[in-house]
Each structure stands twice: as C-alpha cells, then as structure tokens.
Amino acid sequence: MKKIYLILLLIPVLFGCENLDLNPLSEGSSENWYSDETEIEMSLNDLYRTYLWNLEENYETERMTDNWSQRQAVHVFSAGSINSEWNTSSELWLNTYKGITRANSIINSLNRLQGTISDVKIEQFSAEAHFFRAIYYSRLVFYYGDVPFYTTSLDINEAFSLARTDKKIVMKQVYEDFDLAISKLPVSYASNSQLRATKGSAMAFKARAALYMHDYEIARDASKACMDLKAYELHPSYADYFLSKTRRSKETIFALPRSFELGSSWNSKNFYTRTAGGSAVAQPSWELFASYLCTDGLPIDESPLFDPRNPFKNRDPRLHATIAEFGKEHLGFIYDPNPYSTKVLNVKTGLMTANKDTRSVDTYASYNGLTLKKGVDTDWTDNNETDFDIRIMRYADVLLMYAEAKIELGEIDNSTLSAINQVRARAYGVGLAEIEKYPSVKTKIQEELRTELRTERRVEFAWENRRFDDIIRWKIADKVLTKPIYGILDVKDLKAKVIDKGLWFFPQVPVIDSDGLPDFEPMHKNGLIKLLVERNFDSRQYLFPIPSKEVLINKNLKQNPGY
C-alpha cells in the first residue's frame, strides 16, 4: 500500500482512521512541504502551540490531585473511574504523537535542504526538533510505560502493526535527543529567549525526564549543568512572579506566552471570588493548606507557633501568596468566609457590600472557605479573562530536581542543602546566608531530607501542575487520592458547632504524617467538619490507559493492565 501523507498537522496514521484526512494534491504534504526555511520554521512553531501542552494548561493536572477542591465534585481520575475511552488520555496520546510525527518529519527533511539553508539554521532546526521529540517521548513513557516508537515516516501497514517498545530503549533515544539539543542550542537568543528552546531548557527537561524515570545520576548531572550556565536566577518575589504582568523573568526557563494582543487568553471566572464577580468553583484544598510549614520550619502539628484559630499566622510566606488570607484585602474586597460576616468592605469605594464569599449569603461560595490567590490579580476581573504565560519549566524546579537526585543517590552534601535553601530563602524574601531570617534546612539524614524536599516541592509548585506527576512517580497516589475531601459544615451547624464554640477556623489541629498528609478524619468523627466527597484512586491508574480505538485497530498494541 502506498504511503499516505497527511496535511500540515501530520497526524500519525496509527492513531485512528477517523483522524486521517488524505490531502488533495493541491495541499501541502510531507513530500512537498519541508522545502525551505520558512516552511521548516512554520512547522517548528506548531510544536510550541498549546494543544501539545494540554496537561500544562489552566491547572489541568491540579484537578486530579489533593491540591484541588471543587464543591462536592470529584475528578474522574481521583474517583478511580477512568477507562480506555477517557478523553484526557485519548487527547494526550493523539496530540503527543502528532508532535512526534512533526518532529520526525522536520529532522528527516533537513538533509535534503543542505545548501539551500545555512548550516547554522539547519543546526538550530534540528536541535529544536530533537528537543521536542525528546520531551514528547519522555512524556508518553511516564504516563503509559512502553509505547510505540518510531523515528521515520511510516506507511499505513507499518503504522497499524506497531507494537510497544521497551521504555528503556525509548529513553535511550530521549537522552540522545536531549544531548544533541544541548550541544546545538544557544544559551539565549538576541531577544525573547523564553519563546524558543534553549540549551538550558534542554538540560532542565532532560533532568525532569530522568528524575521521573528514577535515573538519578542523569537527573543530577543535567540539573547541575543547567545551574552552572548561570543563565537563570530566582525571581526576587515569589508572589509577583506569578502575576500576568511578570514577563520574561530570569527564573523562567521555558514558557508558552499568552497575550490579549495576540488573541491568546484564558477564562478565569471559576478561580476568583464571588464578591469580585467570579464563580469560585474551584478552591485550594485543606490538604494543601495544612502542608505549609510554620516559620520555625515545623509542620503545623509539631510547631508551637501554629494557631488553629488564626491558621495563617506564623506560616510559610508562600501560603499567603497562594491562598487568600481571611480578613485581608483580595481583589478589592476584604475576604472573609465566616458566615457571620454578611457584609465586607469594598476597599476601592470604602463602602460595605454583600459578602458573597460566605455561604450564609451565597450558597455557592467556597465549600471549604479557601480561595486561590497565587497569580490572581485584578486584571482577572476586568472581563473574566487573563493572559498569564504558561510556565512549564522554571529555575526553582531545577534546584529542587538537583537536590532530589542527590538525596536519592545518597550524595547529601552542602550543595544539596543549598539548592533547597535557595528556594526557601526566596520565599521569605531573604538571602541564602541569612539563616536567622528563615527556617533553613539543616538535616543530612536521607529520610528526613526526603520529607523536607517533598514538602518543599508541594508548597513551591502549588497549582502549577507539578503535584500530579510527583504523587505518581513517588508512588503515593494510592494513599493521597483515597482520602476524602472535607470542607466546612453547612451554615447552621457551622455556627452552632464551630464558631459559637470559639473553634473557627480549624476546630482541631490535624496530624501530619511522614508524607506530609494531614488527617482530618478525627474532626469529621467529632461532627466538626463535613465530608464533601469520597475519592477512590485505583492503583492501575499509575499508568494511563491506551485509547481503546488504538488497541482495536492494531492487534499488536496491548492495553495497560486493568483497562
């Protein structure tokens, strides 16, 4: 059967006949498209489009973690009910293979363009294509395990007979692709360095891919190489870094830019308060709220500084930057979920207004009393839109990846502690050496430092789509996602059982276990909080299901266990 070539999106032929669109002779194909510099560059630009990064957008994977609470709803993943027709998996599989096919086509077309494009441009195009192919294959291996693997064009017979390749073989190619990209990509460009792949971004993504595969030596070396470039640094203010006005920070290693001017924005209404005009559909969870350490570096169940009546006091500054504090201004209004606070101050007008952020006024106010502050700015409320960049890799992650790799290798030294403490010191707005002004990490005991590192990752990257991958690769999702989601009692009971007895906000201090997970069950047994919804993660979900339609059309493509 003759080869089938696809239109510009280059949808791989092995992923569903219904997705194929045989291109007319008048349209571009892989035989006649990759013929000059402009066409190659246009094809590369497609690899930066958001459809290829759908798990990184708009808190997509946060929804599947214990950082997220959404009234009395639970995500299908956390409910343990995904199957081989799960749309998220199907889209991820299809779109990632689209990217791989495009990257392959670019790589394989460059040889015939020798002499028509400068060697410098050919090197750059090749490096970028290898960079993306490495990211896409490492993504597939992490979520699916062994996957179909190809680096050339396929005819339809080859496509429909591809079996799964051992992930070790795939990862060998991944590391080789990253190494090629690292050797050829520049450290920066003349301008807009974060808009294209760089040497540092290839190092950082190689470190992430290796960390996810527990190849700790590779992760250590790649993250250290990125650090040694001296091209990146932590943004001075943790809170300001996430605002949409913060562009081109030296902390950002790789991001997908969005802007109103380019028609690329995002509807934000679900993620800010009802008093300010939002819908408050989703909130940071109590589990996340309880995970922030106190200013003495201890968890809330160990620190004498923790006050359950004033739970924001004496806490890691990243808590204040991530979750709106009660009684403080947020989006132009005082935020207060207390049901007795039926009116709050409009800071701009100086007048009192109906407090739609308490359930005694608005039934659909936050069910756990919390609301998101991280990245939220008044520009969200102008037209329910925001255009913050999609930050996919930042320098804080490189530092913590380096520290984690060193911990797991048993190579704990001062550089390990320094990497963690740089991140923590920035959170407190002080320098690394000012150890009297922040709770620096000092232990070199592996188990203790592992707990410190994992807590640090959770609070540093809260609502940045990192928690999901972490609980999967640490193999704690079966523990994390089988705990119920709790919230505040209904208004009448909340007043009688909690507020009138002086127990607002937290009626008791939850015990925090070695994985940094709080236990709210005693409060529930005492009738002081409400069970909102159960979670029921199934351990088969440590791997995603291969889309059913792909298995049906290819007898050699075996499904993951349990689907």
From TrEMBL:
Residues 43-210 form the SusD-like N-terminal domain. Keywords: Cell outer membrane, Membrane, Signal. It is found in: Cell outer membrane. SUPFAM superfamilies: TPR-like. It holds the Pfam family SusD_RagB. The keyword Cell inner membrane does not apply. Residues 261-563 form the RagB/SusD domain. GO terms for cellular component: cell outer membrane. Belongs to the SusD family. This is Starch-binding protein. It comes from Flavobacterium flevense.
